[in-house]
Amino acid sequence: MTSPGPDGAAEAVGPPAPENPLLEFSGLANGKRSSRLLSEFLWAQDFVRLCGVASPLHRAKLLEGRLPGAALPYVLVPMTSAFSIDNAVYTRMLQNFLGITGHPLPHSHDCGHAGVVQLGEHNQHHIQVCPIYGRALKAHDEVKFLIAQMVRQCGVANVARTEVRLSGPAGNYDCDVVYFDRKTHKRVVLEITRVAITQASISGSGVLAGPDAVLSILRARERERRRCARISAIVEHDEGNTLFIPIVLTSCGGFGPSAQKYLKHIYSRARDNNCSDMGVGQPDIQTTWNSLYASTYWNMRLSVAGAAKDAQVQNDILLSDFTRNLVVVGRQPHPDPNFASYVSSGRPHRLAVALPHAA
């Protein structure tokens, strides 16, 4: 095949040059690159492709899965009691992580004081945020108590208290965790918040805007906590002797920016205190082969704690719904557990019968 050259003369034209590829495979075996770099590249390709075709919710769940800590519940080794999770709870955790409903639709759900709610496509993930049975409080407490233990075990403070009431110019503020740092002698106040990434929580949040959209949701919750007038007044009134740190996590265990920074600080202090090696510095803690250091152990514990407790209560909610939705064809027990059918309701109690007058 020929084409005119710059001077008008004919010259041979070969096949078109191939486009410069993103990754050159020909010399991969002889290069110094590790297989992990190749797998990470291929994973990133698939991630971008899936994000492009996913629904808004599933794209948000993909972005949540990129957060530090979000996938740690799925690499735990069940060699200790803290990491021994039964199959039903583990399955529910995985469903929450993947954005799977986990129950048939439509679903008749008893939502406590809100009455019976019919769950469909528009509210299919309501179980993940349902308030009954103390779901949110129990998962929140699991993380809160664990952080207090972590602070003490890593040698940052001798004692850490939970549910502490502080007073300030704007009024009282009930704090999740409060302790005094052994090194700086400053009072540290931690506020724990868990955020469920569901269809309702991403509505209007710009999840389709970019890869950091879910991280932006967590940043927004951190700003909300910092702007609280009561805690702001307490921090300002103490003239720099009180630090307020919002700890925001997703319901699947992903850490927000402030939580990531705080945990790095804790692990740095653990190294300074010779508590980084769990077997030597924290011998009372039961560890596994993939959680031998303070950073790996406590990251995994914090990620698992709230997600597992949340999943456990969600299962309880669903089991109650499944039982209430059974088709019954016969008589049911009286709602009052003190009721007995063999006792006449009109007959007075024996001690209440008046004695006959003496003749």
Secondary-structure blueprint:
Layout (H helix, E strand, L loop, with lengths): L1 E3 L5 E3 L22 H19 L2 H10 L21 H12 L8 E4 L5 E4 L15 H19 L6 E9 L2 E10 L6 E9 L3 H4 L10 H14 L2 H9 L4 E9 L6 H16 L5 H4 L12 H31 L35
Parallel strand pairs: 7-8
Antiparallel strand pairs: 1-2, 3-4, 5-6, 6-7
Helix pairs in contact: 3-10, 4-10
Descriptive tags:
four-stranded mixed sheet; 359 residues; two-stranded antiparallel sheet; disordered N terminus; 8 strands
Question: How does this model look, in words?
Answer:
With 359 residues, this protein is of the alpha+beta class. It has one domain (56-324). 38% of the residues lie in helices and 14% in strands. The protein is built from 10 helices and 8 strands. The chain has helices at 35-53, 56-65, 87-98, 135-153, 199-202, 213-226, 229-237, 257-272, 278-281, 294-324, and strands spanning 2-4, 10-12, 107-110, 116-119, 160-168, 171-180, 187-195, 242-250. A 4-stranded mixed beta sheet has the order 5-6-7-8. Strands 1-2 form a two-stranded antiparallel sheet. A two-stranded antiparallel ribbon has the order 3-4. A hairpin with a 2-residue loop joins strand 5 (160-168) and strand 6 (171-180). Helix 3 crosses helix 10 and helix 4 packs antiparallel against helix 10. The radius of gyration is 29 Å and the shape is globular. The chain starts with a strand and ends in a 35-residue tail after the last helix. Residues 2-11 have low confidence and may be disordered.
Mean pLDDT: 86
Strand content: 5-15%
The Rg value, from CA coordinates, equals 29 Å
Shape: globular
Helix content: 25-40%
- What is the CA-CA span between the terminal residues? 138 Å
The main β sheet shows up as: 4 strands, mixed
Tell me the number of helical segments per DSSP (H or I, 4 or more residues long): 10
**Number of separate structural domains:** 1
Q: Tally of extended strands? A: 8
Unreliable sequence segments = 2-11
Helix and strand sequence: EEHHHEEHEEEHHHEHHH
Q: Strand order of the main beta sheet, please?
A: 5-6-7-8
The structural class is alpha+beta
